[in-house]
Amino acid sequence: MTSLNVYGYDKYDLTENLEALRPFVGADKFVDADIDPTAYDSNDLVGMNRWVNLFQCAHAYVTNYNGTFDYMVDMRKRDSSLTIPMLRGVLNCMRAELSRMDKFKDTNSADTIATEDTISGRYAIDLNGKLGFFKVDVVTEGKWAGWTFVKRIIGGGRGSDNLVPVKGSERSTVLNTIGSDPQGAMLRYGQEIGICGVCSRDLTDESSRAKGIGPICSENLGW
Ligand SMILES: [Zn+2]
User: What is the spatial distance between Cα 164 and Cα 151, in angstroms, rounded to a whole number?
Assistant: First the structure.
């Protein structure tokens, strides 16, 4: 999960707590009355239910918080004695975090880019007359399912230390270029670097080097 830290995104384990809040997030910030039971009419079951849910969301988030944001660390220490203004502060932190998460997702989801034929692996493509090397992770399982991560490979790509996240318009350009000819881009990587773009094994066999892919991956993909 090294790549997540690059974004300062260290609250991965709290995603479920955050998502629980989503149905209660409106256009405006939370105010004290949202978490104050006396502000609701006791006959207003919808209102009371909302209050209970907000209260539980805030407490679940505080209890599970393992990040480094000072305010939240302080709130966790006070968990059993959180006042209404404190809970309001927690809910607004969560609200901001949800929106940050969504922005992060926007720049990493495959939704708007034609990547159906793109598989996870390493690719070489021409960008503005320069050959660039990229690692693409098309995630199909788990919490990040549907996301596509793009990283630039610098210095041979043998370890995650050599991978730099690619975001925004550059990411779209990279994915669209690869998407126009994934096979060509992956074989090019193998030919240039001497490593199979699918499984990252060294290509030692002469015909594999010429082709740019190992024999097993070549057969699996029908390339
Ligand atoms: Zn291979």
Answer: 5
Q: How far is the CA of 103 from the centre of ligand 1 (A)?
A: 34
* Cα gap 173→170, rounded to integer Å: 5
- For ligand 1, the distance from its centroid to the CA atom of residue 4, given in whole angstroms, is 26
Q: 42 CA to middle of ligand 1, Å?
A: 65
In DSSP terms, 138 is beta-bridged to: 148
74 Cα: distance to centroid of ligand 1 (angstroms): 49
Per-residue pLDDT at 176? 87
pLDDT, tens only, 46-81: 888 889 899 999 998 998 888 888 999 999 999 888
pLDDT at 141 over 90: no
Cα separation, 154 vs 34, in Å, equals 50
Compute the distance from residue 161 Cα to the ligand 1 centre, in Å.
21
DSSP E strand boundaries for 84-215: 121-127, 130-138, 148-153, 163-165
Cα separation, 223 vs 218, whole angstroms: 5
Q: How many Å lie between the centroid of ligand 1 and the Cα of residue 219?
A: 10
Tell me 125's DSSP state: E
Enumerate the domain spans of the chain: 15-108, 121-221
Instruction: Return the pLDDT at 108.
Output: 64
